[in-house]
Amino acid sequence: MKIIFILTLTAYFSQAEVTFRSFQVQHKKKYSALELTRREQIFNQNLIKIQKNNEKYRKGLVSYQMGINQFSDLTEEEFSSRFKTLPLNNTKLKNVLTQDSNNFNISDLPESIDWREKGIVTEVKDQGLCGACWAFSATGALEGQLALNYKTLIPISEQQLIDCDTKVNVGCDGGYIQEALQFATTNGLTTEENYPYIQARGYCRKWKKNVVRGGGYVNILPYNETDLKLAVGLMGPVSVAIHSGPFQFYQSGIHSGAACTDNVDHGVLVVGYGKNTSSQEEYWLLKNSWGTSWGENGYFKLAMSKNNTGLCGIAKQSCYPINVTNCGYSLVQNVLVLGLVCIKLFF
Ligand SMILES: *[C@@H]1O[C@H](CO)[C@@H](O)[C@H](O)[C@H]1NC(C)=O
Ligand SMILES: *[C@@H]1O[C@H](CO)[C@@H](O)[C@H](O)[C@H]1NC(C)=O
Ligand SMILES: *[C@@H]1O[C@H](CO)[C@@H](O)[C@H](O)[C@H]1NC(C)=O
Ligand SMILES: *[C@@H]1O[C@H](CO)[C@@H](O)[C@H](O)[C@H]1NC(C)=O
Ligand SMILES: *[C@@H]1O[C@H](CO)[C@@H](O)[C@H](O)[C@H]1NC(C)=O
Ligand SMILES: *[C@@H]1O[C@H](CO)[C@@H](O)[C@H](O)[C@H]1NC(C)=O
Question: What residue stretches are annotated with the Cathepsin propeptide inhibitor domain (predicted)?
Fold first, then answer.
């Protein structure tokens, strides 16, 4: 009896060791000799967390799976310290519009929507080791409005925001999504191609032509998922902030919001909503900026709450840009069309 127990234990640990090795290879992790032991310990603790969750998933107790990803060697604290959207301080935001949901008719809401299918969501990006989620959330919302208005889907530069939008925002150390949308309104933004991402804060450079200019933004009243749904369903992708910790090992399915608080620290983009027809569970569809190996090819689903206030703080500080124009040029079938003024184009 004793021997069998020990053998099982040995088999378990060597399996974990193999898993850790392949994790290191897959995610190109290099540790100093000193760090290796600590990272392996953290990894193994995380692995147990992942396995416990997936056991519950197999029993039908939770509707999402966890998996090993680039964050599997980090403690919860280390993980959370990477993604910083500053908590909203309303006193710093001037002349802000609030969504008047009376302008919408709730019966116009589609039952479900996935803006990716409408061709207005760019490829999933990877912020890497830089806490500029706020910039990624903002460019995602701008890209959506630009594509809706001009039928041109162009990746917009986060680096420009990181380097140049520095009055309040602090680059890789965090920022307000709203402040970024305000910057886009005042200064315009160029393409990712013109001003590429470098995962660090640099000097604000001169850039070639702007491709987008915001026309202000709208805040959605907090803690009301119906208002959020009206915006996502009828306006386009919406920037939100969430509590990121519980998503460290998320792999697929509808996250229940377990272990979530509304202490939001991470900016992401709502690109749709829907309902699982067999479980009847309603969810938000979100685009993250952690690369495509995380989650469902970079996306995730979060359950809608039972009391309409939103899980993980999703409805706490959401917003979207309005009156987004194409100031500079548009790409029409790869032909550069130059324009000196902002002209609303329809094609
Ligand atoms: C919000 O901003 C105001 C003005 O800058 C400042 O006095 C206040 O301490 C800030 N509050 C928080 C919670 O950061
Ligand atoms: C939430 O928003 C909807 C739509 O605007 C509104 O009808 C409802 O009264 C709001 N709920 C609360 C609690 O404010
Ligand atoms: C909302 O839309 C429905 C269906 O199109 C229509 O019957 C209703 O009158 C509209 N309500 C308002 C307030 O416009
Ligand atoms: C819907 O929910 C059922 C039951 O929880 C699950 O088996 C199925 O995989 C879900 N479907 C999708 C598309 O996630
Ligand atoms: C809504 O539900 C959540 C848990 O799902 C709870 O934490 C929160 O206090 C509730 N809010 C209200 C206003 O009932
Ligand atoms: C600006 O956006 C608001 C809200 O979407 C809209 O009502 C208004 O007509 C827009 N203004 C212009 C000039 O497009």
Answer: 20-79
Measured CA angle at 318 (ends 313, 320), to 5 deg: 160
Per-residue pLDDT tens digits for 33-87: 999 999 999 999 999 999 999 999 999 999 999 999 999 999 999 998 887 777 6
**Which DSSP symbol is given to 91?**
G
224-239 pLDDT, tens digit per residue, is 999 999 999 999 999 9
**What separation, in Å, do the N-terminal and C-terminal C-alpha atoms of the chain show?**
75
- How far apart are the CA of 90 and the centre of ligand 1, in A? 8
Question: Which structural domain range is residue 296 located in?
Answer: 79-326
Give CA–CA dist 218/106, Å, rounded: 18
Distances (CA, A) of 204 to 66, 122, 164, 210, 305: 39, 24, 5, 15, 41
The answer to whether residues 47 and 194 belong to one domain is no
Whole-angstrom distance, CA of residue 75 vs CA of residue 80: 9
From the candidates 130, 133, 164, 260, give the one annotated as an active-site residue. 133
Cα–Cα distance between 157 and 244 in angstroms, integer? 23
Report the separation in Å between the CA atom of 232 and the middle of ligand 3, taken as the mean of its atom positions. Answer: 19
Q: Which residues contact 281 (CB under 8 A, 6 or more apart)?
A: 63, 254, 275, 303
The Cα 139–Cα 149 span in angstroms is: 15
Same domain, 132 and 272: yes
CA of 89 to the centre of ligand 2 (A): 23
pTM value? 0.90
**Looking at ligand 3, which residue's alpha carbon is closest to its atom 13?**
105
> Do 50 and 129 lie in a common domain?
no
CB 284, CB 304: distance < 8 Å: yes
Pocket (CB within 6 angstroms of ligand 2) = 101, 224, 226-227
